[in-house]
Amino acid sequence: MIQPDSVAGLSRKEIEERLAKWPINGIGLHPGGSNYVFVVRLAEDDEEIFAIYKPAAGERPLRDFPYGTLHNREWSAYIIADALGWPAVPPTVVRDGPHGIGSVQLFIDADFTKHYFNLRDERLDDYTPVAMFDVLVNNADRKGGACLLDGDDRIWAVDHGLTFNPLARRRTVMFEFNGTPYPDELLKSIENLVPTLDDGGSDLRDKLAGVLDEPEIDSLIRRGREMLESRNFPHLDPDWNVPWPMI
Predict the structure, then answer these.
(1) pTM assigned to the model
(2) Cα dist. 235→59, 144, 160, 180, 200 in Å?
(3) What is the spatial distance between Cα 46 and Cα 7, in angstroms, rounded to a whole number?
């Protein structure tokens, strides 16, 4: 499957509108997911676009995440990444689909033989925004394959269903960043984000309040402040803070 070339010329808002409004008229189960994940075709007139659809009804019950909330966390991660300006997260919406409400995210044409473990030696710096984002959103599932390399050599961060829960253990494969300094330019983005999140009347806070619990938003703010204070990646345990499978 190849995403139409026309998608490259669209703005983020135009892509979001297509994902949210165009009819889904083709669907296939994506293999290998722990939850039900579908590749879908959305089309209107003679145009089409491909996306990844994760219905709430297909979510597997988890011990540390409330059932039926993962699709909202996918969308929340997207709007936080958009507010920061990093990392690259594909446009994502929440909408009704063939199996009910779920997240619908732009499909990224990627080289699926490439992942963190065989790219980190030459491109470790390019993963810094992803690793830093995972600290902020408390990602419990950063596998090596949850970063996609597209044809333009751009790295996209995907699979953010296990985020924002303050009680979940952070899980990642990116232990090379343990204890290293956060880049100043990325800290500046967090410095700008935290007051917006803390403003009860802000548009961003209102969006999150519609899909996340207040304690989850408060812990997001707290983690942002901790990052500004520490200015270094936390030390995580490679025997404890790991996802499964690792790719």
Answers:
(1) 0.96
(2) 31, 19, 21, 9, 32
(3) 13
